[in-house]
Design goal:
EC number: 6.3.2.12, 6.3.2.17
InterPro entries: Folylpolyglutamate_synth (IPR001645), Folylpolyglutamate_synth_CS (IPR018109), Mur-like_cat_sf (IPR036565), Mur_ligase_C (IPR004101), Mur_ligase_C_dom_sf (IPR036615), Mur_ligase_cen (IPR013221)
Protein name: Dihydrofolate synthase/folylpolyglutamate synthase
Enzyme class: ligase
CATH superfamily of the largest domain: Mur-like, catalytic domain
Strand order of the largest sheet: 4-3-2-5-1-6-7-8
Cofactor: Mg(2+)
Radius of gyration: 21 Å
CATH topology of the largest domain: UDP-N-acetylmuramoyl-L-alanine:D-glutamate ligase
Oligomer: single chain
Distance between the termini: 42 Å
Helix content: 25-40%
Number of helices: 15
Number of strands: 17
Mean pLDDT: 93
Low-confidence stretches: none
Number of domains: 2
Largest sheet: 8 strands, mixed
Strand content: 15-25%
Length: about 425
Amino acid sequence: MDTYEEALSWIHGRLRTGIKPGLSRMEWMMERLGHPERRLKAVHIGGTNGKGSTTAMLRSILSEAGYEVGTFTSPYIEQFNERISINGRPISDEEVTGLAQKIRGLADEMEEMAFGGPSEFEIITAMSLYYFACVRPVDIVLFEVGLGGRLDSTNIIHPVLSIITTIGKDHIQFLGDTLAEIAFEKAGIIKNGVPVMTAVEQPEALDIIERVAKEKKASLYLRGREFSGTWLSSTEHGEQFEFQSPFSTRGPIETSLAGLHQVNNAALAIMAADYLRTFYAFFIEDEHVEKGLGNIHWPGRFETLYECPLIIADGAHNEEGISALVKTINQRFPDRNITILFAAMKDKPLDGMIQQLKGVAHQLYLAPFDFPRAAQSEEYEPYTDEKSDIVQDYQKQIKRFQKNGKGTDVFIITGSLYFISTVKKEIKTPGFFSENV
């Protein structure tokens, strides 16, 4: 393995192993690597929705304060290297190659062992831990959970703080059918004596988190009880709100990410920053919080891809995410003509997602696309009607809207971060919008 392309091919080739819950493989790799996970100051961020935005907001605040902040996130939107970044800058191709070479020898050894070789996600997690501990040490690392929490490979870390954003029904084939079962898996990131912050609201989910926190003697900071983010108004590109906690009162303050749900994410990020300042002597002033939240850009989260006519990409990929998107559409574009291009994974609750979008869309296009788990025409067939249609060539619909859409029209692309990633790459291709349709 000598090139970046060969490294990516090997890493992505591990997809064939599927999802492999459990920490035995990670524990073995960490021991062989000299336990890099023990050398890191980290924040662990889990939950059903909002993990990425909360991570991005906290990273932006800490970066504004002058800290070197590592992040481990998934999935990537434009480039694989995004998954391991410092202050929002992805690591280099050469660094990816070197890390893959480091881990491959271990992976080959593991193939002969009882627990088998590591999954793709375990490999990337190990790469990030080794990188931030041994190759490019940073002041703090923000680790986003991949799936669930209790058995997720990122749960090998012992953080200074844990965050559980929200609980919703997603990945039920792995995490359980009820909110209580899913909350139990998410609460698995709570460690003994390590504080946890959450914006979870549903009583059956919150009961589990409170019980686990009590068992682990972990202080629990709950939005709406210990801290709050109160929405004030929408701005041109984001939301304005007030924040209150035992550590600070702020406001009005603005985040450049749009959507009422982003106020909850911002409140979690501020609360985490305040905690690090109060208990870990991080030097974070008001201007760092304000600039950090005001200047943030997070790809695929109500992101404008084209200004006029307006084309927006949003990575909502489950019922709760679509619900938040619909609220944002109604809030920002109450009298506009809305066209939605939707593509999702076939294991998602398509009915609940599509029915919500039908309530806000004047025209809904259901799009099969080239991805192993993507829903295809047969999955979409039951949802076609006079304003919902299956489109095989979704690129043509995007180009047609860009050419013929009026200034008040809005085109929204949603359903899957994998789809958003694909579309963004295509739109950035030179000449994409100049081709005839």
